[in-house]
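Q: Could you predict the 3D structure of ABC transporter permease?
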Amino acid sequence: MGCRRDRPEASRMSRGSVRATSLISDNRVGLLLLIVVLVALIGSLKPMFFSPAFVIGPMLTSIAIFTVVGLAQMVVLSVGQMNLAVGGMAAIGAMGSAMIFQAFDVPLIVGILVGLAFGGAVGALCGVLIAYAGVNSFVVTLAMSFALLGLVPAVYSWVSTGNAITVQTPGLAELGRSKLSDLCLGDVCGPDGIPLILFVALAAMIVIGLLFARSRVGREILLTGSNDRAALLSAIPVPRRIITVHTLSGALAALAGFMLGASTGSFTPGIGQEFMLQSFLGPILGGTLLAGGYVSVIGTFLGITLTVVIRQGLLLFGVGIEGLNILLGTILLIALSADRIRSVTGARSRLRSARADTTVKTEEKAVVS
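A: Sure. Here are the predicted structure tokens for ABC transporter permease:
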């Protein structure tokens, strides 16, 4: 009887060790620790790093914009595909908002929705070609990227003499460049260095997180990414879900383009040119699988935060843009190489957990008998 009591206890300890191992191996925990260490290290060597006005504020603005870009890529990666036109979709979405502001002087929210519609329409077109024509997402989005690379500057030169559109819509400057310190209740004001645009990114994170965690559509998207044939046999409309993720990707890219235009005060054809690398770095570093079937919204945010902290730190140390691009490219290569290792490790961890649960059930039955 004594031996039989010890076995369940040992198995419970085994399950606890599996959970602890799973927590330690969670790359989000590692990313968070690495960010904390880097912030402390850079701040100790360069106290200027903690300046709210000159470093923290611009850095949080970049994190907000690039997080939305990362989400745009993440939703497509969820079905095992990619969007190489994320920069072009950001540019055409921002252009759509700027044109509607300039032509009709519409309210801020209307202009934003028009921009999202522009980006979403381009994404939907890519999704239709991929889902129904059977063309690879790499080919379709690459071709779309080149098409937008020529279309967007041509439209700007047609509607604006200076290849840029400056918008004076009420609320735009406040959204793009104001901080919490600008909001006061009496004599009490918010903390300095936290831009309002950060809350746009947080809202996008909440919406996308709820989509994948709580909605039927989100679950069907992940099942499609895990195994599209099995998803079809389960009566999941796979082509529609592919169109859904590309439409959503285009809308999110357009939102990021609008955020960049609002933060600079000017909408130009150059919006989105630096989005490609960041769009992959955030999700992949955050744990999203290239093969599809698993995404991490928080991981994407942490991955983007890590890259922005590294970039800001290198700039403070005087490293040029060339060295910065080399480092970020190397980080992406390492992340891509680690993706396969992470997949294998995760499969083994799930297998160990399943074996531990089976052992517990068997031993509990033995105790009862």
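Q: Anything worth pointing out?
A: The beta strands are 184-185, 188-189.
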